[in-house]
Each structure stands twice: as C-alpha cells, then as structure tokens.
Amino acid sequence: MAVKQRLALLAALMLLTGCGGPRAVMGLDSARRGEPATAVPIFMATTRARSDDLSRPYSAERSQMLNFAEFDIGIPRNHVPGEVEKTGHTPDPARHFTARTYRPIDDRKQFVAQLDAALMQRPPASREIFIFVHGYNNNIADSVFRAAQIAQDFNVQAVSLHYAWPSGGALPLYVYDRDSTVVGRGGLADTIEIAGQTKASRIILVGHSMGAYVVMEALRELAQTGRGRYLKRLGGVVLAAPDIDVDAFQSQVRDIGELPQPFAIVVSRRDRALSISRRIAGGHPRVGSGSDIALLQKKGITVLDASELDGGNHAVFASSPTLIGLFGNGLLMRRFIDSDEGSATETVLADGGSAVEGAAALVVYLPARIIGGALIAGRSR
C-alpha cells in the first residue's frame, strides 16, 4: 500500500473513531474556573511513562514497569450521556471533563491496599472492580475521561480501574499503537493479577477496539504463565468493537483455553473504522465487524450485534443512548453478568425493550452451548 494511501486511510480512521477533535488535556495545571456537577474516582494502572507535564501526566513513552495513580474526574454540568466533553485548551469544569485531583501511588502493595479501602466503602453487593481498557489513538486524558464517562453514564457501582497502555495518541502512529499492545499486555496481565489479590467479589473486564487485543493477549499471558487462577476471578469479559484479526483471535482463544464467563463481544457491520483497519491489514477481517458470528457462538461467546443501534459506529458501546438506557440503571447489567444461561439475556432485552426506545435494534446471539442446551431441554419435556 502506497504511503499516501495509508495516510489517507489513517486520517479517515481517526475521524471515524471520534479522535478528530481536540486532544484532551487533564486541566491539573490550570486555575479552577467553575465547579463540575459531580466527580468520579478512577484508579489507574499504566505502562505509560510518568511525565512532568500536568496537562498530561503520563506520556506516550513506554514504561517497563507499572505505574499507579488515582484521579477524581469532574463531570461537567452540561454533560450529555454518551459524550466526552473535552478541550485542548484550558478546560472549564462546568463545560468540560477535568481532572480535579491526581494522586500517584507508590507501589503495587499500596495500590492493592487503596483498592481494598475503596471496596470496603461500598455495600457488599457492589464490592467489585470494573477494569476498562482503551483503544487506538488515545492520550492519557482521552482514555481516563472515557473511563469516567462510562462509569458515570452506565451507573457503574464497582470500583473503576482504568488500564492505560502506551498509545501514541497521534494520527500517524497506528503501527506504534499496534506494537504498544504487545508491550502493554504484560501490564494488563499484572493489573488483573493485582485486582485478583484484592477483596473484590468479582472483576469485570472491558476492552475497546485495539484495547480488546491487549485484553486477549493479557488473558493469554495469564493462561500461559501459570496464573490461570486469576482468570477464574473474572466474572465477565466484554470486547467492544475488537480490532483483532479473526485468525489471530482464534489462536488467542486456543491458547487461553477455557474463556471466562460470561464472555461477550459487541460487533457492528456498520463500523467504518474497522473497515478501514481491515484495509490497512491487507483485507483480513476484524472480529468486531461481525463477519463470522457463528464462529464466536461456537466458542461460547455471546455476540451483541449493534449494527442497527444508534448508527452502529465504532464507539457505540459507550455512546449509544439506547445502551445507556438499557444498562444504565445497573439492574439489567447485573442480570446480564450474573447469568450463565440464555434466558437472562433474553429477559434483559424484553425488560429493556418495553422501556427503552430503539432497544429492539440490538440483536443478541447466544453461545452455541446455551442454544444446544435449550434444545435438548426442550426435547426432554
């Protein structure tokens, strides 16, 4: 592929993934000009290198060790669910996401202790850890703000833990980001292990786009390095619009062995960003495009087809008003995560469809093991 053609594809990819706006800054180095509506605490583990620039206190440079921190992220008063209101200049807390506080955490032991302290402040039913892994072309502010938006809009009651791998956060750096997923997988494996050493009753793991590749590689590393017990601590895994080659995904699943359950993938045939990624990759299909849903079902994976849901774009998992309406009250999300049977997923859609406009546009494909079990049960009656 010619250089000009590749750059044109990358420019289109940046626009389609919603990364064409201002590059977010944290606002830690600016004077307070207003007050947010609320603040969301976000713990972070990262393989980004520390920076002295408080507008972005972690850089695109790769660190060979995990760094830890906690932020309080202000949600602006004009916040629209599904959006991340940001600016590349001095942020106004009344209009933009802003880091209100930033507390570096010295080491792994202290990080576990602070996670435990946050867990113990919650009622027993909410003593869980929610890990979010960002996608391509994110700087540190982009990804932390997205983690806070998801926690706020979806009413996440768990302790929010963001894993930030060292994305270059720039248009021409698609290859740098792809290489950084390999650098970052060990850090996520260690982050899952750390979460597994806390008093959390359950750990939920969500990876978006290229971050889904980091998730799969981290699960593979845990399985291949004798740390499979931490896979059993995972009470749910969601890959949203995974930018993963289908053949590579099958190899990852084979190496992991038994996938954590429930395991769900959000796909969309209308995801133009993944269509461009496919062209960059020489035409190899991406898992998130939903090109082979039957294959995913056979591997015990629930597939949520969002092709007709609120445009079906690359960020639909976090920005869709319908999904926020379905899962934002926490109860439907709990029912989906708690169940290992198909009936609960069907109940989620039935309950949501009666109250949320557009819910019928979400199509759920259950794992083949559940469908087969339902058929066998039906024949025995």
Quick structural summary:
40% of the residues lie in helices and 20% in strands. It has 14 helices and ten strands.
Characterise this structure.
The chain is α/β, with parallel strands linked by helices and 381 residues long. The chain has a single domain, classed as 3-Layer(aba) Sandwich (Rossmann fold). The chain has 14 helices and 10 strands. It has helices spanning 3-16, 108-120, 140-153, 174-196, 210-224, 228-231, 246-256, 272-280, 293-298, 316-319, 321-327, 331-338, 342-353, 368-380; strands at 38-50, 58-75, 98-105, 128-133, 159-164, 202-208, 234-240, 263-267, 302-305, 363-365. Strands 3-2-1-5-4-6-7-8-9-10 form a 10-stranded mixed sheet, sandwiched between helices. Helix 1 runs antiparallel to helix 8, helix 4 (174-196) packs across helix 5 and helix 5 (210-224) packs parallel to helix 7.
